[in-house]
Amino acid sequence: MSKPVVLVTAATVSELAQGLLRAGGADVAFMPGHIDEEALIAALSAREVSAVLLRGSPPLTERVFAAARGLKIVAKHGAGVDSVDIAGATRHGIAVMVAGGANADAVAEHSLALMLSLARGLSQFDRQTRSGAWRDLNQFTRDFRTLTVGIVGYGQIGERTARLVQACGARVLIHTRSKVTLPAGMEIEADFDRLLTSVDMLSLHCPLTEKTRGMIGVAQLARMKPGAFLINTARGPVIDEAALVDALRSGRLAGAGLDTFATEPPDAANPLFALPNVLVTPHIAAATTDAMMRMGTIAANNIISYLRGEIYDPRNFLNPDVFKAT
């Protein structure tokens, strides 16, 4: 009997994850380079693939699932599955699982780092100092602990970010559609428009859905406090980038910290890159050695357990009706 094949949508995955997959009786194959819909169709139709370990955000569409022979599970190396047609996967009887919480601490730390860097103007001071300019005694930044920070989305990443922000002394307002119990000292702001007018920093931690796509546009940026900051470690398309550029150029916003973009990788001519009040990173908030290990381990365990007819962690299962139907 041939071994089940696990296709990794990247050039590699952690050695521990590979070891778990092979110990579980699977062969591991990789897809280096750029991956589009046609490349996935070719890879999944060329031979029978039992599982996809999804790194990055290649498009797993209805066409891809229709071309797959024997595909049983897509296991995300992380939590964001906006590139996966979950309804299509369900129609084809394919499980979709995530590595719940594996990268939450890493992304939360990155979010806080962007906040602190913007509040204290670190990237601008770095550039000035390197250029030979010394400090201007009349140039001031903000005390982070005096700020009000709005957290949009209170999943595991949003929750951890909120705790870090609170630990640094800032006031925390949470906007979420879920019913949650907050730690002492945090507050819920259910009205999104009122949240925008209340915060000095807005940090986005919501998934990309049809409801959240473009949720920060011209109208929302106009409602934010003059001199406020915007942080995005969620998904790029939740922000209208053209509107953001205008708000930053006009001085309406004091700055933005962005780890994600509307198109990735972004064009080198993206106007955001020319703005001195923007701090950018290449979608690496989750890229710590510890988070990579956790994500790979959970994804591998999700796959091996499911192929054995078991569920590693029910909280990771996005379409459990597929399992009930088997």
Q: What is the 3D shape?
A: elongated
Rg of Cα set: 21 Å
What's the name of the CATH homologous superfamily of the largest domain?
NAD(P)-binding Rossmann-like Domain
Low-confidence stretches: none
Tell me what portion of residues adopts beta-strand conformation.
15-25%
Distance between the termini: 21 Å
Question: What's the level 1 CATH class of the largest domain?
Answer: Alpha Beta
Structural class: alpha/beta
CATH topology of the largest domain: Rossmann fold
The assigned CATH architecture of the largest domain is 3-Layer(aba) Sandwich
- Main beta sheet strand tally, sense and closure: 7 strands, parallel
- How many alpha or pi helices? 12
Number of domains: 2
Q: Could you describe the 3D structure shown?
A:
The structure is a single chain. With 326 residues, the protein is α/β, with parallel strands linked by helices. It folds into 2 domains: 5-102 and 289-324, NAD(P)-binding Rossmann-like Domain (Rossmann fold, 3-Layer(aba) Sandwich); 104-280, Rossmann fold (3-Layer(aba) Sandwich). It is 35% helix and 15% strand. It has 12 helices and 12 strands. It has helices at 15-23, 37-46, 62-67, 86-91, 104-119, 122-130, 156-167, 192-198, 218-223, 241-250, 289-307, 321-324; strands at residues 5-8, 27-30, 51-54, 73-76, 95-97, 148-152, 171-175, 187-188, 201-204, 228-232, 253-258, 278-280. The strands form 2 sheets. It has a 7-stranded parallel beta sheet, with helices on both faces. A 5-stranded parallel beta sheet has the order 2-1-3-4-5. Helix 1 links the parallel strand 1 (5-8) and strand 2. The protein is elongated, with a radius of gyration of 21 Å. The two termini are 21 Å apart. The model has no long low-confidence stretch (mean pLDDT 95).
